[in-house]
Design brief:
The protein has seven helices and two strands, in the order ααααββααα. It has 219 residues and is mostly helical. It has a single domain, classed as Up-down Bundle (Rhopdopsin 7-helix transmembrane proteins), CATH 1.20.1070. Strands 1-2 form a two-stranded antiparallel sheet. A hairpin with a 2-residue loop joins strand 1 (124-128) and strand 2 (131-135). Helix 1 (5-24) runs parallel beside helix 7 (186-214), helix 3 (61-90) packs parallel to helix 5 (141-158) and helix 6 runs antiparallel to helix 7 (186-214).
């Protein structure tokens, strides 16, 4: 997965199907950002498929560059803020929401910095082994990566919902493993892993619907 244009297109289509199923489970407006994440991940993977095609010379450089900036805008400038916000909105415990607000703020700072880097710094993408190496953060890359992981995963770990906590644990484990094995491909590989988490998002939404349906009705 995520090792070629074909793999990105296939994974994007599969994750998209999960995303449609997730949106069908929505019953409350506060669930929409969480349920929409799989669709966003699907589009993300399809976009990287175009980046692959550009790097391999199958589409024009201009098309590839547009795809690269679109891919990085979501990965760098949107996800650090959107992911913690989505968990915050479905958290029923006020005290935990108060803690989560700090991660939303951190995510906003990280997203703002990465958006600035995306606009003002030279950005590039290169094939490294079987992944794509995205560059453009400069010497602060390691610090920004650490803050990015804290912002995107921390809110999951604070959730009162057990399955959502496991999302966070799985994400932290995946990021650590990827960074250890191949730090250059972290942006590419972790965003695919986040797409796999889409299945867990769907299962959580489905569980909420079953729990609601099981509640006794009083008249």
């Amino acid at each position: 997965m995520c090792f070629s244009a074909e793999a990105d297109f296939v994974s994007g289509a599969l994750i998209g199907a999960v995303g449609v199923a997730s949106l069908r489970e929505v019953r409350h407006a506060r669930e929409i950002p969480l349920a929409a994440l799989p669709i966003a991940f699907a589009v993300h993977q399809l976009t990287e498929g175009v980046v692959w095609l550009g790097l391999e010379g199958h589409v024009s450089r201009s098309v590839s560059d547009v795809a690269m900036y679109a891919y990085l805008f979501y990965a760098w400038a949107a996800l650090p803020f959107v992911a913690p916000l989505a968990i915050y909105l479905v958290e029923p415990v006020r005290r935990r929401r108060t803690w989560m607000a700090a991660f939303i703020a951190l995510g906003a700072v990280v997203a703002a910095y990465l958006l600035w880097a995306l606009v003002h710094e030279p950005v590039s993408a290169h094939i490294t082994g079987h992944t794509i190496d995205y560059r453009g953060v400069g010497d602060s890359g390691n610090l920004v990566t650490a803050l990015y992981v804290v912002a995107t995963c921390g809110t999951f770990l604070l959730s009162s919902q057990r399955r959502i906590v496991w999302f966070g644990v799985a994400n932290v484990a995946a990021v650590a493993a990827i960074a250890w094995e191949q730090s250059a491909g972290l942006t590419s590989l972790w965003c695919l892993w986040a797409g796999v988490v889409s299945v867990l998002i769907y299962l959580q939404l489905r569980d909420w619907r079953r729990a609601e349906e099981a509640e006794p009705a009083f008249t």
